Automatic annotation (TrEMBL):
Classification via CDD domains: Beta4Glucosyltransferase
Keyword Transferase carried by entry: yes
Domain of life: Bacteria
InterPro entries linked to this entry: Glyco_trans_2-like (IPR001173), Nucleotide-diphossugar_trans (IPR029044)
Pfam family of the protein (one): Glycos_transf_2
The protein's name in its UniProt record: Glycosyltransferase family 2
GO molecular function: transferase activity
Protein keywords: Transferase
Keyword Transmembrane: no
Domain Glycosyltransferase 2-like: start-end pairs: 8-97
Species assigned in the record: Paenibacillus pini JCM 16418
Species classification: Bacteria, Bacillati, Bacillota, Bacilli, Bacillales
Length: 297
């Protein structure tokens, strides 16, 4: 444990044997690593144990807390700070060194955002949409909000596209993680089909307007503006491909921007479907009430 970074790493898995080895190799400098596994049927658990990680079984009960918050609530941490790393992500040597420096140079802030270098179609995207996530935090000063999303179709056990709420100051680290955005294009589109189900629900019920999560200030402003815009699919393409210079990434940049455009198109038509189903259900309920009144008369 000498010279290890005093941070507990949390890696959430389910059937990640293709990714887990390189992910674990990227966090060897951290003092503690948990692999929180949701019933993998492949070699994820055995690989993780062989590489020295502490494997914890997780079974979601369909309620809150979801998996990230459950980890904060129940894992036997030895450190005050935790770092969330997805199995298809890698902590770069530069990021590990930067995090180590935070603790060597005094008391760190309660939370830090990290930028991600996306690998899409076997190319590291240097332009286009830049993703930041709050993944390093003081576990005593942060929690994930309940987003009223338990009724989202095809929703799963992990919190969706939102950040934890941090009590206190946050910052942005200079170094990046690497995110391999999919195992295959089939996996990529299947994942975003599920995500769009979730986002259609939280945009419809107003939960997406709840900005109590911690966020980089410009992101909060961007979210407020984007939430009000029509034709979000077109705006997202222009944002990634033109405004953020995605065209400089060549064909991969175009396809990524177009895939992001399709994602918001899915959300749009799924919101219309939800509204139609709600209207149909309310109409059927009203018709039933009128029938009861008529029969009672």
């Amino acid at each position: 444990m000498v010279n290890k970074i005093p941070v507990s790493v949390i890696i959430m898995t389910k059937n990640e044997e293709k990714n887990i080895r390189k992910c674990l190799l990227s966090v060897v400098d951290f003092a503690e690593v948990f692999v929180v596994d949701s019933g993998s049927t492949d070699q994820t658990q055995s690989i993780s144990e062989a590489m020295g990680a502490t494997v914890v079984d997780f079974q979601w009960n369909g309620q809150y807390p979801k998996k990230k918050q459950w980890c904060l609530d129940y894992l036997p941490f030895q450190n005050d700070y935790v770092l969330y790393v997805d199995a298809d992500e890698e902590v770069t040597a530069e990021l590990a060194a930067e995090i180590k420096g935070l603790f060597a140079n005094g008391a760190p802030l309660n939370g830090y955002f990290v930028g991600f270098d996306l690998v899409f179609m076997n190319k590291v995207l240097k332009f286009g949409h830049r993703m930041f996530k709050l993944v390093l935090l003081n576990r005593h000063a942060g929690h994930f909000l309940d987003y009223n999303d338990l009724n989202a179709s095809n929703m799963w056990e992990v919190e969706g596209h939102y950040q934890p709420q941090i009590d206190g100051s946050t910052g942005v680290l200079k170094s990046s993680m690497v995110h391999y955005d999919h195992d295959s294009l089939f996996d990529y589109f299947a994942k975003h089909n599920r995500y769009s189900d979730w986002e259609a629900v939280v945009r419809s019920n107003g939960a997406m307007s709840n900005l109590n999560e911690s966020q980089i200030w410009i992101r909060t402003l961007q979210k407020r503006i984007f939430h009000q815009l029509p034709l979000k699919w077109a705006v997202s393409f222009l944002h990634s491909y033109v405004m953020k210079l995605g065209f400089l990434d060549g064909a991969a940049g175009f396809h990524y921007a177009f895939a992001r455009c399709v994602y918001y198109w899915q959300i749009g038509i799924k919101i219309k479907e939800l509204r139609y189903r709600t209207e149909q259900a309310l109409g059927a309920e009203l018709e039933g009430d009128l029938r009861k009144v008529h029969e009672g008369a």
